[in-house]
């Protein structure tokens, strides 16, 4: 059940996030049975970040909106990625922090055995800091969950 470099979904989600041409990169991933999307979100409210990523995943057919376990898996991957962005405390506006993030969502089976089923990864990259221009620094987060 070894992971291969070309199927390490966290790595693939981060590469998708940082790709200069996400459309081309997604087309290559889809040839290998991966589904994905990218987007941007900025807010002082973590609920808005979760909502933006969930909306993008549903709109792009990465998760089925009427299947609870898929939304639930995505939610946990988002929260795990936000823990990385916020250094363990998913608090933004309540402690006067704001973020400007790019995100990538990737779904597929990273294992050789198809019975392992699909997993979902969320990668986040951008800035975090006080809501004052010039008071931010870079941040990154990754979350992976089984569906």
Automatic annotation (TrEMBL):
Protein name: Hut operon positive regulatory protein
Gene3D superfamilies registered for this protein in UniProt: Hut operon regulatory protein HutP (3.40.1510.10)
Family: Belongs to the HutP family.
Quaternary assembly: Homohexamer.
Organism of origin: Neobacillus kokaensis
Metal-binding listed as a keyword: no
Pfam families: HutP
Sorted UniProt keywords: Activator, Histidine metabolism, RNA-binding, Transcription, Transcription regulation
Biological role: Antiterminator that binds to cis-acting regulatory sequences on the mRNA in the presence of histidine, thereby suppressing transcription termination and activating the hut operon for histidine utilization.
InterPro entries: Regulatory_HutP, Regulatory_HutP_bacillales, Regulatory_HutP_sf
């Amino acid at each position: 059940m070894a992971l291969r470099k070309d199927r390490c979904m966290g790595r693939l989600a981060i590469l998708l996030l940082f790709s200069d041409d996400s459309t081309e990169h997604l087309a290559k991933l889809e040839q290998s049975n991966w589904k994905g999307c990218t987007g941007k979100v900025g807010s002082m409210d973590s609920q808005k970040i979760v909502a933006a990523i969930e909306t993008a995943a549903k709109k792009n057919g990465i998760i089925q909106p009427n299947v609870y376990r898929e939304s639930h898996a995505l939610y946990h991957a988002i929260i795990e990625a936000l823990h990385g962005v916020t250094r363990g405390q998913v608090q933004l506006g309540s402690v006067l922090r704001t973020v400007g993030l790019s995100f990538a969502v990737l779904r597929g089976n990273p294992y050789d055995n198809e019975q392992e089923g699909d997993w979902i990864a969320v990668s986040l990259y951008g800035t975090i800091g006080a809501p004052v221009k010039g008071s931010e620094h870079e941040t990154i987060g990754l979350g992976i969950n089984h569906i």
